[in-house]
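Researcher: Let's do a round of design. I'm pasting the structure tokens now; please hold your answer until I've finished.
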């Protein structure tokens, strides 16, 4: 059980994102991965989209969360909030790929559905309340206290307690009929483990050609997200670029 009060930074190792998937041509993944900007994009296959998506999620989020969680990181015991900052975006985002559309205007709904996919045991744990509204109330509080706190205020809100515990989630309720949530106990290391397990399963399902509906939803969301190609503006060179005064 460790208090969270970390500081300091160790940069992660360079990730060879493109080299990790040598079978994926740079031209086909022009808008998906960092490639030479002058090559014309081609339409990737479903499997190439899946591979690119896996590279993006692992290389941009999960690998760094695992580096923070590793015992080899000398401030790992204080990295709980940083781990949560990285992985809390997963729940809303992954639900978009299940549904084939972004969460625009339905952030709480998508977050809650994605959270239940990663933590499917929550409904059974809340049956004691014998109140059908408790589950929605708990998910709403997790959304507000965790996701909105981190991404809008840079820190979790007051009902969140972060500690390294025996399980990923715990809840304290006020002893009233409506069971209002008083405290949400979160173990970031266990949350990361659950997210990793879910993502691995999700990728395995996507690679199965028999998962037709899931693959169609994934492709639709993936293509919508990647459809808008952006212009490349190179960084300024301090010796050759002259800025107007």
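Researcher: That's everything. Go ahead.
Model: Designed sequence:
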């Amino acid at each position: 059980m460790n208090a969270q009060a970390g500081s300091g930074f160790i940069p992660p190792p360079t990730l060879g994102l493109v080299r990790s998937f040598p079978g994926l041509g740079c031209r086909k993944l022009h808008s998906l991965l960092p490639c030479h900007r002058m090559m014309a994009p081609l339409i990737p296959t479903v499997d190439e989209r899946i591979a690119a998506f896996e590279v993006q999620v692992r290389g941009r989020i999960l690998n760094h969360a695992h580096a923070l969680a590793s015992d080899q990181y000398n401030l790992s015991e204080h990295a709980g909030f940083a781990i949560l900052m990285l992985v809390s975006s997963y729940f809303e985002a992954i639900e978009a790929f299940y549904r084939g559309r972004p969460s625009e205007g339905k952030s709480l709904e998508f977050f809650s559905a994605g959270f239940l996919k990663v933590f499917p045991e929550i409904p059974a744990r809340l049956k004691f309340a014998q109140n059908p509204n408790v589950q929605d109330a708990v998910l709403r509080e997790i959304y507000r206290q965790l996701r909105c706190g981190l991404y809008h205020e840079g820190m979790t809100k007051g009902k969140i307690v972060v500690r390294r515990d025996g399980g990923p989630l715990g809840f304290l309720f006020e002893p009233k009929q409506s069971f209002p949530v008083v405290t949400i106990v979160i173990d970031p290391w266990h949350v990361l483990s659950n997210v990793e397990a879910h993502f691995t399963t999700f990728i395995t399902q996507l690679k199965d050609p028999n998962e037709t509906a899931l693959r169609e939803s994934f492709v639709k969301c993936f293509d919508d997200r990647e459809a808008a190609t952006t212009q490349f503006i190179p960084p300024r060179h301090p010796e050759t670029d002259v800025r107007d005064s």
